[in-house]
Structures are given as C-alpha cells and as structure tokens.
Amino acid sequence: xxxxxxxxxxxxxxxxxxxxxxxxxxxxxxxxxxxxxxxxxxxxxxxxxxxxxxxxxxxxxxxxxxxxxxxxxxxxxxxxxxxxxxxxxxxxxxxxxxxxxxxxxxxxxxxxxxxxxxxxxxxxxxxxxxxxxxxxxxxxxxxxxxxxxxxxxxxxxxxxxxxxxxxxxxxxxxxxxxxxxxxxxxxxxxxxxxxxxxxxxxxxxxxxxxxxxxxxxx
Length: 218
Hints:
42% of the residues lie in helices and 14% in strands. The protein is an alpha+beta fold and 218 residues long.
C-alpha cells in the first residue's frame, strides 16, 4: 500500500471539506424558497490579493487592516476561503419595509449606491439568506474539525476586487488546518508594545480585560 504523508492528507481533506461546506451553504434555509446565493472558493493567490487590499484600508477601516494582516500570515499554512454573496434587489414581494422603503418595488427602483463594501440599498431578507448560508458553511467546517471563522471584512475585499462577480454584497468563511487554531488566539497581540502601537488604535473602545487579557497587577 502506498504511504501518504500528513501534509498531502491535510490538503486533500481540506479540499473535500470545502466542497462539503459549499453543499451545506447551498442547501441551507432560504427565505422565499428560491436560491440565488452565489458561492465560490478562492485560492491562495486571490486570498493574498484580498489580504493586501484589506490591509491597505487601514486609515478607513482599522478592522479591515487587522484582518488583512492576519490573512497574510494565515496563507502560509493550508487554508481556504469560501465567499458567499447575492444580488441586492428583492424578488420576494414581502413589502415589509425593513430596507427603509415602503415596498419591494420601490426599493428595487431606487438608485443603486455603489461602495467598496457593498452596493445598496439591499433587501434585508437577501442579507439574511447570505448570512444563513455562511453560518451553514461554518457549522459544517466545525463538524469536520476545521479551524473556522466568518469574516465580513474579507467578504468585502472579495467584492471590492471583483473576485466574486454578479453580487452586490458578500461574506467570507475562512478555514484552516494549521497546527493550532489561528482565529481566536490573541496572545500574540497582548504585549505592551503591540497594545500601545496598534491594538489600542484599532479598537479604542475595547479593554484588555474584555478580550481576555490579564492586566498587570499594581
């Protein structure tokens, strides 16, 4: 029997897992009973481009810059990015008013406002469909034992760079098979130097206790 090395099995398992995540996202609940959500998987070249774009937005969005910097490190190990998006206009005819317009028809006729993050105005049920799909993909990743996190910032980057086309807004689901969970380990950010130079600037309303760090005792 041929011997397969761990690195090969990890990459193969990751590829299969992403396919199953896409299936879960595709089969998730939909308002309106129609499935217009678009789902793609991007490779490391596209992930690097998204990371650089998000990092370049530091003056506009410190959160996007932080996630871009994080993604630059993440791509050094086996990882993947699923991007989920949809069109903004309603085809539900709910006339619920959640979008700020009196009817779906009125919102659909409104002038499209283009932005880096998304195009609007958008149907709230379209937004919920996309986020339900992203959550279903993330739940599948968890069941399969992958490290996983949902990112609005990386979805925005994929949308702005037209990595995903034919949509007006997008969310990203990032997965990894790194040696340890890279998404929720903030110990590397808890040094006094990092706190003073970067983290406090990016998150001025946070406290170190809020993110679980231990304050120095007096």
